[in-house]
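Course assignment 3, question 2. Fill in each field.
Student: A.L.
Task: Predict the tertiary structure for the chain below.
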Amino acid sequence: EHQRKNYKKALQYATICFENAKQSGSGTDMTGALQLMSKIYSGMGDYKQGFSYLNKYLVLHDSLLSVEKSKQLAEIKEKYKATQQQNKILYLEKKQLQTHNLQTLLVISIIVITLFLIFIFISYRLVKRNRNQIKKQQVFFQKLLSNSIEFTFLIDKNRVIKYLSPSYTKLFQGKPGDKLEEAFYHHLDKESVKKSDELLSKLTADQKRVSFEFKIQTTRNITRYVTGVAQNFLDDDTIQGIIINLWDITDLKEASTSLKKRERELEASNQTKEKLFSIISHDLIGNIGTTSELMKLLDDNFDNFDPEDKHKIISSVSNTLETTYTLVSNLLSWARIQMNKITTQRNPVLLHPVIEKIAGLYKGQLADKAIEFTIDCDKTTRVVADPNQLEFIVRNLIRNAIKFTHTGGKIWFSCTTQKGVVLIGIKDNGVGMSKQKIDELLSDSTELTSTVGTNNEQGTGLGLIIVKEFIQLNKGRLQIKSKPGEGTEVIITLLAS
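Answer field:
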């Protein structure tokens, strides 16, 4: 069955042969059965069991060989003594045959010695062949373990390491004879050490096998994740220890983390797209519809309205168009960012004219809320930025400041040059915000959130997301300082020119 590679059936027959040999006391049959079982397990790929039965075979074989040698040597000695005694008797009884007997004795002695030498030679060859086989097996298992990605070590009941696989020593310190705490715990954090102690306690108490997962640090301070199995073989006469096998699952962990991150990004992206569709279908179309209705009302009743009513309608249409323009601009900018169609041309830009230009655009809204707007910026201050993106950033931040400042409030726009950078500050004494809200705004989240302004101004939250993108594209940094009821200060840091 072994020749036909029917290993299971061959193993059954070999086991029966071994048991029969054990009962009959036939050492030769027992060694033959053990050797066959070693080959069967090796053929099945279970090298560990194959190696175990090979060791048992060699121990029994050497034992039988020693007994056989002793018997044969004893027999030779007895024959030699008998021959000597016979020669003495022959010598005394038949002196005349002394020469003939001496020749006979010499012939017999030569034959015996020759046989003995032949026996020694054959025994030596057998021992040498067996040793070569053991050496080959040792080299085989050594190469197998050296090239295995599995980390294996064996500890005794006192947690002293009896064996460490070469693959373990490539990444970690430690050698046979070390305590487990020195060779393995050294690479674990406190929580993992505690967990490891608990698992080993369970293993030595009432369990034969436990599984675990740890985060460890290599000798080069590289974080790796491993999963493993510990098995209790303390009662095994051959192993007498606990076998611990570890597998590196860092790549799997990273792939899983990457997939989860991508899943979250896709969910956030889908939510953002849904919100954008809502903005387009509600805010944008609503603004256009309101403007259309107001213009139709003005057109149908132009002669009936007094100048004050006409001014109110035109002012309302103007504000609605400005809001619509900002919304459309934000939507287009966001769409171009998503398609990676945004190109940033960073050049030296005078900051003061940009601020005056944007402030002029919001002159009507500042007047409607009676907000005092102050610019404190040197007219020669230059920053390195894309001019269009810089205008977008300033426009959105000023618009937000107006939105959350009460009627009669103040807004300060300042710029300061420090160590090669320009700090651009937009500060108001409006409603302010909590630390949680600040953290939410500064996070990498693309979720659209909007708050109604002090005069019920509406927004989408899209502007600030684009502002953050543009600041990053221009190598800048965004900070927000605020407390509820104490106003807000937004600080942008850009490179000075």
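Instructor remarks: The first strand starts at residue 151 and ends at 155. The chain has a mean pLDDT of 76.
Grade: pending
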